[in-house]
Amino acid sequence: MKVVIIGGVAAGPKAGSRIHRLCHEAEVTLIEKGEFLSYAGCGLPYYISGEVKEQKELMCTPIGVVRDPVFFRQVKNVRVFNRTEALRIDRQRKKVEVKDLESGKLHDVPYDKLVIATGSRPMIPPIEGVNLKNVFTLQKIEDSEDIKNALAENKAKDVVIVGGGLIGIEMTEALIKKGCRVTVIERLPHILPMLDEEMVCQVEQYLESKGVKVKISTAVTAFLGKERVTAVKTEHEEIPCDFVILAAGVTPQVRLAKEAGLEIGVTGGIKVDERMQTGDPDVYAAGDCCQMYNLITRKPCYVPLGSTANKQARVAANVICGLNDSFPGVIASTVCKIFDFNVARTGLSEVQARQEGFDVVTVLSPAPDKAHFYPTAQLIILKLVVDKKTRRLLGAQAVGRGVVDRRIDIAATAITANMTVDDISHLDLTYAPPYSPAMDNLITACDIARNKLDGLFESITIKEVKEKVDRGEHFFFLDVRSPQEYNEVRLENTTLIPLGKLRARIAEIPKEKEIITFCKISLRGYEAARILQASGYKNVKVMDGGIAVWPYEKIVNHS
Amino acid sequence: MKVVIIGGVAAGPKAGSRIHRLCHEAEVTLIEKGEFLSYAGCGLPYYISGEVKEQKELMCTPIGVVRDPVFFRQVKNVRVFNRTEALRIDRQRKKVEVKDLESGKLHDVPYDKLVIATGSRPMIPPIEGVNLKNVFTLQKIEDSEDIKNALAENKAKDVVIVGGGLIGIEMTEALIKKGCRVTVIERLPHILPMLDEEMVCQVEQYLESKGVKVKISTAVTAFLGKERVTAVKTEHEEIPCDFVILAAGVTPQVRLAKEAGLEIGVTGGIKVDERMQTGDPDVYAAGDCCQMYNLITRKPCYVPLGSTANKQARVAANVICGLNDSFPGVIASTVCKIFDFNVARTGLSEVQARQEGFDVVTVLSPAPDKAHFYPTAQLIILKLVVDKKTRRLLGAQAVGRGVVDRRIDIAATAITANMTVDDISHLDLTYAPPYSPAMDNLITACDIARNKLDGLFESITIKEVKEKVDRGEHFFFLDVRSPQEYNEVRLENTTLIPLGKLRARIAEIPKEKEIITFCKISLRGYEAARILQASGYKNVKVMDGGIAVWPYEKIVNHS
Q: Is-above-0.90 flag for pTM?
């Protein structure tokens, strides 16, 4: 059996190695246009920052062997043609026409089974000046060397990152560490569009605190400069810069597949079934070049990630070798580190869930990530999106200096298993003070969701409260924290009645008005609402998340 | 409705607060024998070590309010009698007879619903001298003060910990940090009996590296001394000491329940149903005093933990207040920090699974916890226990300096959802280099399990290899690492053929002999086995986990 694989970065080498392990008699040939094989593209920001010292670390095995053509031949028995471009797939004759980029020679590589693993490429917005020198993208090893060279030329640099997605945001840390002044320009109203607004506000504030300028709802109109870029022009201003990183997303590389008549999905990726098979039973696709399915909506989606590429490649290899396997789909789980701030999400955001027609309950729960008395405990903010009808968890997001990936991965597992918030709240998760509170943040958040679903209280989002304030609406804004907390930081037009005094001072609260309660994280706010309800107050709401997540102006006492 | 709760540490206060929030008209009374309420018993080792500075931090809310009787009255509307002992439950008359320990006065507290949350107490082995001064247990705030006082008396101390369970092992770090010389004595062949042998060996070696003496399979026969303990006598020796911590496990406190005629389960805990109800519909129990069910075996078990107590208390409160809820059970998830070493487990160990009659496949997978090129990556060792018949994950254990709790919590969620290793290997977990490898350790371990279940290779445990060596059995012990790795550390009587040379040198390997392959973590060992099988070798096994987890003698080159 002759197996040909086009693409040598993630899915390709994985599929090739696995196929050879499963079918020793298979002749596996891997074709890669570039020089480098099997490298960790996701590691490039850490190579630029200097945390990863050497280029070769990104393409080594864990014990330090570089995965070059000799390695693939000797260890994996995979024949590799790198610096070789696949020009055309001939499905009738079952061969791939390739060009050796060193010699310029053309030849054919015949296959019985073909795996397309051509990956993605950075989107280049059609903006004036986009081809100027020092306008970089970041996907290949070579890109990272270009950026490192630009950084080495002189010391402090003005850098503009165009695009506030994962790659753009991951790059801010590396550049700030290198002494750059960094501006991120995002066309949409927020960076990191996979997050809901109140979560991404936290990230934007954190970035600003690290000296990153974040310009949202801003379109780049031109890159200025003669040979090399010297400024980025937006609708509002010109921002001088020494170089630019274009991080405006990626698009699947499907030219070969398309020209071979294979079906391209609505997302622009190659259409494959659960077995990673295209419409042609001898042609498979895996990784960033193909379309995947969202497990919750059952709709096509495109979430290119190295983790998914590896899993898909293994499925393709298994199926090719006659093992039963299928790749069910994804729920867009992602995580991102920004200095000491962590951002993660899985499933549907609130916006997505509502677009999909779900009637949802949401929870916003800030809390320490470990037992609150444990010295390294840090605040994290957790948001849940829950289907009202089935009580199933649909999505989770978490941000903060504490551990967020664990909570989101548990949520991802629970979502995949169709668990309800009731199921999750009874999960037997590990507990010890250095790792989590006795009730893990995720369990507490599920319990809040259950309280809402069971009608125990009504909540209002911070944004809705802010809109009421801005409209000049009258409501009784009840802060039930302690006088000390109130003195440190408070919101305008609030009345302080500490929770412990509420029963004694309940007469101070007007019965006819709308009452909105809150505290630091709104646990006491919830208790206050329950007390008021029991005393006959009809129109009581709890402000989700409390003052801890209020992103607008606060009155701060710096004494 | 009058609700009386006996016990004021974890489940009791949680149930009381929740009941009041749900049923404002409920009169809730909490009876606690001790002085302190609602404290974090699990935090005591960190209070002793000094990481938690003040006693009151262990009984504060996250914003620093001490949970004393005034707090419970004002904030939670729960009436508290502390320093008050419940003497008898009169189920006919529905009242609890109590004694005020300050005044000595007796009185009755009537109830409509009763929650027993009497917790557990440390087991005191009936050993000569066990009542000597400075033989401490560690469960209450007062115990921690006693130990802190003993530490303050003079500087370096010899301390013996009797019992190598979670509490005993958690205490080693605190005591070593305080400059003590620490000996742990465990009656069983290993400490931490919830772990399988090859995992616990790693913990024992780590403890020894931190200066803790671990004496396993050793029974204490007496505590020696006149007034205060001066030595611990075992079958083999006398160990001089300044104080002793008895950490021989805990037993549920069920005297009141038993005397009231309530059923006690086979584990010694109060028998309750999923609604936390005893046989008496007006009497509930929650927390360490009650028996729970193992979700996998469906058998009674006893795993007292603060996390479980809180969840059970919430269920009891919900049911008492007419909300539908049930506590399904536990899978014995636990985690423990020892200096910078992490230990976690969930589900069934291999030993437990075999005892329960499961035919299992196990996986031992050492790997970096983050992308291997990321500078803070640390090795963790993951063990899985998988049911051969259903391919369901039954249990997971992890140890190492890297992040283990996330993997175990994902496994706990997957086990609860009855996921197979195939399901888990396709989970869309978060990925970025600072958090995990592209294929998370749990996913890789599941893929190894799938390879075994699919008959792709046969494995042999390190222990079985060691037994072969000790019996002088002849087999071909094939190390497929690099010459450099071999030079640094190797095993006796092995032949080195690096994986990349294996095809060229295959003639050196005898066809008739049993062949056991390995590498550092046995990924290359597995690839070697596949190559040998394809070349007609019939009797090839891969040594699980590789040299990275070999706990016996190695030849180390310190050059």
A: yes
